[in-house]
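tool=predict chain=A
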Amino acid sequence: MPNMVKKEERFRHIIILLIFGGCLFFWQYGITRFLLSHFYFEQGRNLNKKASAIPDAYLAKKAVLYKRSLLSIIHSLKLTPFNPQLLVAYADMLSAIAEDPYLCKIIELESGGIKTKDNLGFFYEKAQRLYRKAVFFEPTNPEYHLKLATVYDKLGKTQKAQEELSRAAALGANNATVYLFIVRYYLAKGDEAKFNYYLEEMIKIGNRLGLCGGGPMADIVLPFLKEIGKEGMLKR
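tool=predict ok
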């Protein structure tokens, strides 16, 4: 009997180790795919247009890099489909591709069911669904709400975009860069009332955090305030 008990314990330990090892392998594989995806995406985004004298060749090379990036992130998501960071990374890539109408036409991905259909809105629609999933899994991240608002705006869903901006503002009550994004949005839209409201809120945050003393947030906010002639509103 003691030998049987020991064998059962060893068997259980082996099973636990196998499960743990399998999880670790898939986690590392997913991370590797994610890093590969990021590498290809950055290569594609930073590709020098002057590197090719033939515009079609430049676009073709850029499309290949983006395609590799998307395929890598799709494989990564198959292993961790509920990871909001991966969902956002995938959506960011689709949004970046949608910015270039010529690139949209030549990228075609059969893996993952993605088809361009020569339709710019297709990429934004797909990105919208991914951002919404990320918001569902991590609803307290204001950055995800800002990204979702941007895509809504691209799709002409202005009311939904502004609702997401309001949610981001509520979540980023001590984050001046969140408010800066919203201020820039309403400045571009020409909505003076909301621009002034969020600008005042951003300045209140800046004064509360003492942005005049410097720091990463100050490096982002202060140049904008100088640009619009409002830097004097921050307390010294």
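The longest helix spans residues 2-45. The radius of gyration is 23 Å.
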